[in-house]
Please model this.
Amino acid sequence: MIRKKRKKRARKKKALLFVLVCFLLLAILALVGITGFKLKKVQVSGNELYSDQQIKDSVLNDEYSWNTLYVFFKYKLFHMKEIPFIDEMEIELLSPSTIRINVYEKAMIGYIEANDQNVYFDKDGFVVEISKRQIERVPKVDGIECREVVVYEKLSLDDEKTLSMLLTFSRQLLKYELVPRMIAFREDRSLTVDFGSVRAEIGDSDFLIEKVMRLDALMPQLKGKKGTLHLENWTPLTTDIVFEPD
Model:
């Protein structure tokens, strides 16, 4: 009996010692986390539409954001608040006192002309910028008009179906890294896309995604040629595609 009691006491002492050691380690880690990970420097990269300060304010948005570990794990474990025109933001821990915010903005996929200005819009149809500057690798869209254009608001077209068609088509071009000079709507709302030496007649909204897939496959074969690629009559059953040289 005495031996059993001694063994029980020894086990209790070991358990207590283990708990104390764990508590001490946690206390040390907490102290290191508090004192050794004070945020002193924030780097911001990839932002054009928002200033560095606007990005910082959106990320460091609560009373615990002075701690680099807290900020890092907060955005690893939880989603950031959605910000217009930004697809994603990543937080990098560069040192105990420095973080970097990598910003991935939504791409501008086209622009229209309105009131002698260029109106740039993103893949969801929201106006990103209104200016006179010409941004490279962003196609002009011709043949549509907006009632009014306001930054951060959606393009206001009388025909929502035309807007939906434009955005679907533009997103597919972006997906396949096809960058035309111009996307044009005719009066019958059929689409034409101009790559400079090669034009492609797309037609109406039927099989729009499949037509862009065919366009992507054919463009390398048309390098150095001039003419019109006819995709307007393409269907899964009518697969003939004609190239008409100039």
